[in-house]
Amino acid sequence: MSTQTTTETIETIRYTTDVIALTDDNRVLLIKRGWDPHKGAWALPGGHVDAGETSRDAAARELREETGVDVDPAHLWQLGIFDDPNRDPRGRYITAAYIAHVANNTRATAGDDAAEARWFHINQLPDLAFDHAAILNAATARN
Question: What CATH number does domain 19-142 carry, 3.40.190.80, 3.60.10.10, 1.10.10.10, 3.90.79.10?
Answer without folding.
Answer: 3.90.79.10
